[in-house]
């Protein structure tokens, strides 16, 4: 055993550097005590301290004056030496020098029962108890023998550290369990940290076991865990197979009004579970780091643990990358956030807010299963804002059971709800779709298949309010060949016409086109631009020309030259199309045509983004308004009794009763029979009388 401060007795041999280190060591001692030397001695921790320091000021006794009597009260010592029989006849403070376990101890002659835990209490071979001086409430897990090398099983050491931390807790003081920087603290069982202990982790727990258990559990079902600061980090050495939800990275139980920072949770079935068990997980601010390779990244849930229902309400979750690597359980489904109940006793988990989480779950690797960012099984009025939706399945949020009034806003990517709730009221929108959502309808085609009728008997089709284009010309036709079906009209080949309308763009320049088409048969949208004189505007030539039509990046158009010269969408789609035109464009023609597959369309509508309400028309003079026109009665198709087709090309006919014209044809029966004179009657108008 050697004196801590040999400079007092060997000052003539000490260098200036050694004396400075001596002073700093003594200062460190007082800083760790948090009290003056005199007060420390008076407190009885050093029975001989007052005697040793007699005749000196506190400052001189601590900082040295060439004869520092108190230097003899602090001894450098190893744990092994401390466990031997030390000299305790004088009141010493023992400074343990073992790396990672260093710190000050004092001898407690009144304790003969405490167990040796290596870090807080050391028992000598003769039964003396030496206790660590811990004025700031921080309990370092390495004091208790934790190695943090990523392979040594530190479970027993962590249990000792947690037990010691709990023993120091009081109603007015909560200790901090501290994991210093290291490779990682390997464990093979659940690390359970009771309520009312702060946790700071500068290195992860690494679960080395094979059982499906929680790696870390904080709090308990019998207590409230309030006003804590938690910095948490866990990994699983071997990726969980996602078969059991008992494999949990971090389980947080009954946390109230706490500041929680999740550095990472990696490789579990459930990454982080926020559980209200016969109490609440409420009013917390949770900072999310990386939630990596988990089947369910974040699970908000509750259960009745024997003392009544639990709940998970009023929490704020900030940021977070919720993602899966390409190697993480390919072919298996994964979920970003789940809000649920373990036993169904409380189904109203509410008002949890997620700010700017990023969901990157790799749908391509989950195939044929789903990569679902958000699943709400039991929750109301929860809010997700500015999320990043990248590489996930088409559905962004799914709601079930009695979940209602949940809302999602996507910053990057699209947003789509699959609302299977008994009270379907999920609201979704995306930043890309914001212009599409806030606009005024200027045209609705109505059900095209219900309004259509044959124009020439059985080939060309007329639809009131709609003009037709042929891809080879710029002409407008009142009717063109279409396929008529019970649920849609079809453009099946290049010989089929493209239905559409004209729109005045002299003032209003931004529009949204929506369509109701069969999935997979959305065809392409073509936009023809005209100048003030009515001439079609061809796409400008040269390097990087400015197009007359511009769209969102998620659905662009390309110059194709069809229909006299048009911009066309690049792929078959039923998605909404936003487009804007330049000042040179005074009107446009919007046409729907087949793409790689047929077009099967039921209806379409146009919306103006700007404040104007522009005119929309078919492009030809419509003699009968909302009625069908034709040149003969239909000879095919199924029509309702009373259907009227106005004659678009009346001519004078000489009859027995005098000249007349056929003004229209009227259906006299319902069904597919189309015999002229029986099922269809001519309505004749006399002329020259």
Automatic annotation (TrEMBL):
The chain crosses the membrane at residues 29-50. InterPro entries: Pectin_lyas_fold, Pectin_lyase_fold/virulence, RHGA/B-epi-like_pectate_lyase, TAT_signal. Gene3D superfamilies: Single-stranded right-handed beta-helix, Pectin lyase-like (2.160.20.10). It comes from the Bacteria. The keyword Glycosyltransferase does not apply. It holds the Pfam family Pect-lyase_RHGA_epim. Keywords: Membrane, Transmembrane, Transmembrane helix. PROSITE patterns: TAT. This is Rhamnogalacturonase A/B/Epimerase-like pectate lyase domain-containing protein.
């Amino acid at each position: 055993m050697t004196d801590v401060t040999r400079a007092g007795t060997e000052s003539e041999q000490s260098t200036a550097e050694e004396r400075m280190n001596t002073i700093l060591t003594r200062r460190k001692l007082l800083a760790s005590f948090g009290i003056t030397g005199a007060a420390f001695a008076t407190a009885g921790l050093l029975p001989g301290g007052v005697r040793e320091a007699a005749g000196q000021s506190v400052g001189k006794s601590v900082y040295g004056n060439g004869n520092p009597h108190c230097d003899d009260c602090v001894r450098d010592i190893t744990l092994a030496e401390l466990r031997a029989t030390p000299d305790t006849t004088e009141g010493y403070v023992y400074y343990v020098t073992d790396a990672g376990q260093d710190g000050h101890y004092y001898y407690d002659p009144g304790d003969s029962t405490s167990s040796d835990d290596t870090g807080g209490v050391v028992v000598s071979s003769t039964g003396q108890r030496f206790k660590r001086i811990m004025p700031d409430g921080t309990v370092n897990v390495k004091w208790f023998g934790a190695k943090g090398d990523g392979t040594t099983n530190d479970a027993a050491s962590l249990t000792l550290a947690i037990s010691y931390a709990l023993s120091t807790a009081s109603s007015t003081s909560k200790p901090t369990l501290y994991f210093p920087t290291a490779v990682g603290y390997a464990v093979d069982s659940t690390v359970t940290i009771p309520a009312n202990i702060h946790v700071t982790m500068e290195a992860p727990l690494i679960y080395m076991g094979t059982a499906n258990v929680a790696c870390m559990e904080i709090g308990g079902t019998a207590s409230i865990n309030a006003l804590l600061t938690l910095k948490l980090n866990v990994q699983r050495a071997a990726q969980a197979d996602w078969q059991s939800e008992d494999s949990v990275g971090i389980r947080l139980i009954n946390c109230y009004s706490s500041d929680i920072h999740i550095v990472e949770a990696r490789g579990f079935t459930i990454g982080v579970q926020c559980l209200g068990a016969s109490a609440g997980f409420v009013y917390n601010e949770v900072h999310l780091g990386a939630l990596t390779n988990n089947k369910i990244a974040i699970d908000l849930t509750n259960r009745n643990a024997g003392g009544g229902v639990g709940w998970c309400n009023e929490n704020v979750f900030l940021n977070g990358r919720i993602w899966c690597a390409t190697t993480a359980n390919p072919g298996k489904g994964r979920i970003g956030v789940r809000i649920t109940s373990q036993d169904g006793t409380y189904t109203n988990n509410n008002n949890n807010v997620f700010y700017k989480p990023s969901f990157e779950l790799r749908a391509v690797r989950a195939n044929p299963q789903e990569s679902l960012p958000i699943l709400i099984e039991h929750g109301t009025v929860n809010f997700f804002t500015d999320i990043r939706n990248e590489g996930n399945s088409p559905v962004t949020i799914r709601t079930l059971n009695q979940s209602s009034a949940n809302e999602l806003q996507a910053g990057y990517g699209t947003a789509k709800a699959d609302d299977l709730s008994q009270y379907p009221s999920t609201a979704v929108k995306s930043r890309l779709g914001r212009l599409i959502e806030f606009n005024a309808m200027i045209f609705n085609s109505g059900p095209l298949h219900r309004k259509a009728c044959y124009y020439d008997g059985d080939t060309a089709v007329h639809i009131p309010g709609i003009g037709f284009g042929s891809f080879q010309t710029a002409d407008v036709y009142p009717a063109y060949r279409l396929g008529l079906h019970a649920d849609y009209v079809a453009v099946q080949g290049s010989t089929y016409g493209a239905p559409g309308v004209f729109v005045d763009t002299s003032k209003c320049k931004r529009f949204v086109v929506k369509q109701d088409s069969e999935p997979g048969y959305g065809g392409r949208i073509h936009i023809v631009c005209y100048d003030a004189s009515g001439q079609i505007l061809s796409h400008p030539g040269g390097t990087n020309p400015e197009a007359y039509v511009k769209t969102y990046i998620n659905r662009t158009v390309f110059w194709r030259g069809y229909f006299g010269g048009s911009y066309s969408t690049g792929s078959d789609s039923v998605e909404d199309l936003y487009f804007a035109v330049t000042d040179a464009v005074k009107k446009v023609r919007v046409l729907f045509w087949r793409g790689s597959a047929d077009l099967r369309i039921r209806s379409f509508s146009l919306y103006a983004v700007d404040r104007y309400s522009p005119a929309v028309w078919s492009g030809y003079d419509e003699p009968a308004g909302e009625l069908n026109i034709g040149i003969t009665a239909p000879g095919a198709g199924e029509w309702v009794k009373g259907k009227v087709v106005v004659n678009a090309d009346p001519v004078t006919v000489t009859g027995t009763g005098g000249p007349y014209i056929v003004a229209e044809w009227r259906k006299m029966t319902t069904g597919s029979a189309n015999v002229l004179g029986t099922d269809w009657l001519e309505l004749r108008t006399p002329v020259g009388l």
